[in-house]
Amino acid sequence: MNSMSKPEILHFSHAAKDYKSDVKPIWCPGCGHFGVQAALFRALAQLNLPPEQVAVVSGIGCSSRLPAYTECYGFHGIHGRALPLATGLKLARPELTVIVASGDGDALSIGGNHFLHACRRDVDLTCIVMDNAVYGMTKGQPSPTTAPDWHSKIAPGGPGFNPLQPLAVALAAGASFIARGFSGDPNGIVHLLIEAIRHPGFALVQVLSPCVTYRPEEKAWKQQVHAAGVEPTADPVEAARRLFADDGLSTGIFYQRQPSPPTAPLRPASRDLTAIEAAFAL
């Protein structure tokens, strides 16, 4: 069964609880990230992936706390650098399933340049951007996806800038899998994550994840989100048309194509430290 197919029924030997660590999440009660965490664990269980074959990499932010809450391998990096860390890990250890947990600030602001090149390189990893259109961990500043008229104490009258469109940017940069989900729809996110993890290239899953502390109005997303109602397309022109006509609240897989093969074969990773040291000897 190829990676572009629907999820298959497996005989599970792993349960969602197998991926949960003993560290208690410190997200605010009602935070959408709880739904993302639960959906990720369910997706890993349905894919029957042993925890020791999964690595979760993050940067800085509320969403980036996720590695501590898993029993998988984890790497909590610095702000905006989760994607280059994850890319290096996947190239060095291609047998691992590598997942990036990021937010709209971490991935699209300070990490924006790395985001572009991760899409362009199309390395086989899954990037989950938990998007609440605010910097929740640092007291509610506008983020790259905040609407221009969102008024707050930190930005009276609103930031005044048009919000970034992550999916359209990812399409233009070269990502081969682009999807959006909603944290209040756990079954929908499970499906998207299964498809994203199976996809053999760079998979972006933007998850609308309400911040109940600084953006309580986002609770209304539960009534506003809707299915895109279209099958994934492999045509970038059609995908661009859909994304630029989209209201930002539709969910589903918007674009999926087979990733381009690398221009040169990757060398197998060497674990011989003596050989590595010799290569750098002066």
Overview of this protein structure:
With 282 residues, this protein is α/β, with parallel strands linked by helices. It has a single domain (16-279), classed as 3-Layer(aba) Sandwich (Rossmann fold), CATH 3.40.50. Helices cover 29% and strands 16% of the residues. It has helices spanning 33-46, 82-92, 104-108, 112-121, 166-173, 186-198, 221-224, 236-245, 273-279, and strands at 54-58, 73-76, 97-103, 125-131, 177-182, 202-208, 226-227, 250-256. It has an eight-stranded mixed beta sheet with strand order 2-1-3-4-6-5-8-7, sandwiched between helices. Helix 6 links the parallel strand 5 (177-182) and strand 6. Helix 1 packs across helix 6 (186-198). The longest helix has 14 residues, at 33-46. The radius of gyration is 19 Å and the shape is globular. It starts with 32 loop residues before the first helix and ends with a helix. The relative contact order is 0.14.
